[in-house]
Amino acid sequence: MKTLKTKLILTTFMILLSLPFITGQTSLAGPVSMPGNNLDATLYDLGSEQYHTLSLKDILNKYKGKVIYLDFWASWCGPCKREMPYSQELKKQLDGKDVVFLYFSTDNNAAKWENAITQMNINGIHYRANPKVRNEIIKEFNLQYIPRYVLINKQGQVADYNAKRPSNPNVKQDIKNLL
After folding, report:
1. How many domains does the chain have?
2. pTM (2 decimals)?
3. In which element (H, E) is residue 50 found?
4. Residue 108 covered by a domain
5. Helix residue ranges, H only, 23-167
6. What's the CATH number where 57 sits?
7. How far out from the chain centre does Cα 106 lie?
8. Angle formed at CA 89 by CA 88 and CA 93, multiple of 5 degrees
9. 150: left (phi over 0), alpha (psi -120 to 50) or beta
10. Which residues, including other chains, have CB under 8 Å from residue 118's CB and lie 6 or more apart?
């Protein structure tokens, strides 16, 4: 009986250890900084235990006082990936200004999300939305497709629910108008 109980405990422990990998989570801790290879990225996996209670409002409030350019994307989205070099260039052009670029991924798989960030060398602050935050994003911004961009002013109010893509040269002026 004691042997059966020990085996049951060990089996349960092994299942719990493998759960993050089965569900696509690669880490339970965060944020994960990924410096190196010219990559300066901070990742927040909202599917992790540490961040699962955060709401969209909690996240956006953290950046109140700055203009926020939200970029909704996924690693499997071709148009999203084509916009990333433009986003990185726009970010460089506005370096030192009161603007923050937040990348919200709708990826279910954390490893694919992290790999895409590394492969495309996407510098910045990244969030992988869990189902709760995804639903909040859909409700707050009527998000029906990606890529999608939203501009939020320094007071935390949405200035443009359908902001221009980074490849549009006029987006820089839209951001500057909010500074």
Report:
1. 1
2. 0.80
3. none
4. yes
5. 56-61, 78-93, 110-119, 131-141
6. 3.40.30.10
7. 8
8. 120
9. beta
10. 34, 37, 39
Degrees, nearest 5: CA angle 42-23-56: 45
Ranges of residues in the chain with a pLDDT under 70 are 1-37
Tokens at 126, concatenated: 């990244």
**Helix-strand-coil percent breakdown of the chain, rounded to 5?**
40, 20, 40
Task: Return the exposure string of 121-141: e unless at least 16 CB atoms fall within 10 Å of the residue's CB, then b.
Answer: ebbbbbbbbbeebbebbeeeb
Determine the structural domain holding residue 87 and report its residue range.
41-178
From residue 67, give the alpha-carbon distance in Å to each of 33, 85, 117, 151, 161. 23, 20, 23, 7, 14
User: What digits encode the pLDDT tens for the residues 91-115?
Assistant: 999 999 999 999 999 999 999 999 9
CA-based nearest residue to 66, from 151, 162, 166, 163: 151
Q: Nearest-CA neighbor of 99 among 177, 47, 44?
A: 177
